[in-house]
Specification:
Number of helices: 7
Shape: globular
Distance between the termini: 29 Å
Radius of gyration: 16 Å
Strand content: 15-25%
Order of helices and strands: EEEHEHHEHEHHEH
Largest sheet: 5 strands, parallel
Length: 188
């Protein structure tokens, strides 16, 4: 049971909420999140990005990639996002978060009204072609165990608020679609 209270922050008196970007490695989650952060900040909103890679180097550096560690990674990220939401921040979370049950836990922690699940639905083949970190190649060579999309499953959202395929939608259009969806929440 959540006993959180919504608060406002700063002169804009904005209400915090979380856009949870989920998808395969290389789908474009972080790219979209950081582009959205820049646009929202330029419009005067208090916003931050929680990026899966960054949190794994810092707050979650003690976690591996077992199912239990992945769940704890998402739980911690959701708790941080909720604290930031309570302070009035818009939080853009970019996490693979491959299990529906883990995303449901994040939604429960953050709160259904504050959680906007956004599926970066870029096909696995495109993500693998992009392979910005060489991870798919390593996973296929057996050097990375339990790699989502190769040796571990990804459960696509059943009813995301938005679905964006970054192989067919340009970054500026992806941001525009998210901002259009968020427009009612962004009114001061």
């Amino acid at each position: 049971m959540n006993n959180h209270r919504a608060t406002t922050a700063g002169p804009a008196r904005q209400r915090g909420f979380t856009v949870w970007l989920t998808g395969l490695s290389g789908a474009g989650k972080s790219t979209v999140a950081f582009a959205l952060e820049a646009q929202l900040a330029a419009a005067g909103h208090h916003v931050t990005v929680l990026d899966g890679d960054v949190l794994r180097r810092r707050l979650n550096r003690d976690l591996g990639f077992s199912p239990a560690d992945r769940q704890e990674n998402i739980r911690r990220a959701a708790e941080v996002a909720r604290l930031m939401n309570d302070a009035g921040l818009i939080v853009l979370c970019a996490f693979i978060s491959p299990q529906r049950s883990d995303r449901a836990l994040a939604r429960e922690i953050i709160g259904d009204q504050l959680f906007i699940e956004t599926w970066i639905s870029t096909p696995g083949a495109v993500c693998e072609q992009r392979d910005p970190k060489g991870l798919y190649q390593k996973a296929r060579a057996g050097l990375i165990a339990e790699f989502t999309g190769v040796s571990a499953p990804y459960e696509a959202p059943m009813q995301p608020a938005l679905a964006l395929d970054t192989s067919t939608i340009a970054l500026d259009q992806s941001c525009r679609l998210v901002l259009e969806h968020l427009a009612p929440r962004l009114k001061k």
